[in-house]
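QA checklist item 7 of 12: single-chain prediction sanity check.
[x] sequence parsed
[x] length recorded as 694
[x] structure emitted
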Amino acid sequence: MAPPRNVKEVQRLTGRMAALSRFLSRSAVRGLPFFRVLKAPKDFRWTEECQKAFADLKAYLAELPTLTAPELGETLFLYLSTCNEAVSAVLVREDRGAQRPVYYVSRALQGPETRYSPAEKLVLALVHAARKLRPYFQAHSVVVLTDRPLRQILTKPEVSGRMTKWAVELAEHDLSYRPRTAIKAQALADFLAEGANLNQTELAPTPTDTPAEKPWVLFVDGASSREGSGAGLLLTSPTGEELTYALRFDFPASNNEAEYEALLTGLRIAHQMGVTAIRVRSDSQLVVLQVRGEYEAKDEVMKKYLAKVREAMALFRTFEIERVPRSQNKRADALSKLASSSFAHLSKEVLVEVVKQKSIDRVQVLAIDSSATWMAPLIDFLSSGALPENKAEARRIQLRAAKYAYTGGTLYRRSYLSPWLKCVTPEEGDYVLREIHEGICAAHVGSRVLAKKCLLLGYYWPSVFRDAADLVQKCRACQVHASLRHQPTQEMVPIHSPWPFAQWGIDLLGPFPRAPGRYEHLVVAIDYFTKWVEAEPLVSISGKAIRKFFWKSIVCRFGIPHVLVSDNGRQFAEKPFRSWCAELGINQHFTSVGHPQANEFLSRLSITKSPAYLSQNFRVSDPLRCLLYLLVSRPELELKVHLKHVERRMVKAIQEPGSRGALLSWMDLQGHFQLEQGHILIRRQEGSLEWPSP
């Protein structure tokens, strides 16, 4: 293959490289000289760098590595490499103790991407590999082998928005991170060696690991007087930012004890802020020389303080302490004197802490055996990358971990528009809810407002809304003083029947005293339009018996109804009756639990009609049944029936005066009532007498 002689042939060469990029290790790096030629198409120049890259490409194509296909469920491994102008990755699998490449991925950096930090370039290589090899990442568990702490970088609270977006994008994949081990294939060794030769970016230490970190400076001073004792701290960052802190001791302390307390508190604050290198300045010769080991601590109290300082020193990678004149420690000295006497002269910008007991006092701690909380799997994964053996559970934890951060021994839930929320156990959350709901400033608010207040205060646990609802429901004060709710517990269902026998109500009555035939129960059905009642005694109240009654007495005689109203009994709400109604197209409506009045006609019938009346056998020749049959089979007769009823009412209205006259004539024949002596009569007073005034 001859070298390209014009821009068109260079474009053809880069296109072929793109087609073979899966087989080419670091294809973007190999094509960088060709890309530079294409940036100036009018001034075509084939340089020595291009010729060398072209020769290396031909030599590499002559010895291409053999790619393999992964098996279903197999764990794959990913190697990353970066340089100034490109990022690369290779996906491999283990086959009989050796690592075989599956896919090579490479990409040239564009514009601002070339100015990314080394950590961002490494994460960009991982993100590009996840996008390019999405089918592999979704079907397999991928282990990223790198010497960089990528998992810690992606979960740090101070990462940029770009890194946070990448962390959320990578959270959908089953990724784990391990330190790079021995390379088990020559192709992979060449892949990593090429990256190391091109640029030492990957081997350069990250800013968090650099040993030349500038130390923070801590000025401490303690003071003791008759009015009290206190201490002052001044912590200065390498960039010149100053933090002031004052301590007020609620216990008697000597001047040396106050100096030690100031030193211990300053070291504790610096460690919590993530400081790893610190330089302490103090004007106390005794404390400085005892910490250095030049003075011996003879007093028991000083020995205890010195042991505490030794423990605090071990938390820092670099620790220095030196004595300075009091003239160079004026600000810390002023803070200590003001804190030991009064808080009135302290500025509002100064943070003040009241110390209740000495740092050397032993605190009695009661051991509490607590089971694993909901935070334990997340903490294990974020701190050490540990995952359960169950793949589904491990996948779920990885997806959830993208929303959390583990910093300073505390788990926080991430948030983009509000401060991070401290994660607590349900027991601690119950205490927080009670303090908000019924504490000193209790307002006895509703469950949703209560949960929102808890979140605004900075606490979180998964069941916060459910626990808030349970607490409000169990609060006696809320139950006593809350306004009455007239809204029904369930959705109201309107009951209406547009035509005869379209809507029926059904219910069970009993048990009654056993009758001949072992009948103890009664099933009753009523039509909502005509108020027609159908009843039948039952031996058992099973779903099959109800279905048999409904088929024989309702469906076969009146047709398939549109709606059936019943309670939530198992005979009506479960198989086989419910599935049978669904097959026939009957819509079942269930009344509210504990509210039989919703089925008003049946409840009224159950009260007014005795079981004996409902269970009597009507004869087939009963005129009511004959009329009912005509109404069902021939609806046009309904108008004639109504007209016949109107005619009968008119006849009765005409006959009523004659009947009343006959009754009066009979009473006249009986004669009037005769008054006799001694009868007591009630006389009707037409006018009212004048009421005599007193």
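[x] summary fact logged: The longest helix spans residues 637-669.
[ ] second reviewer sign-off
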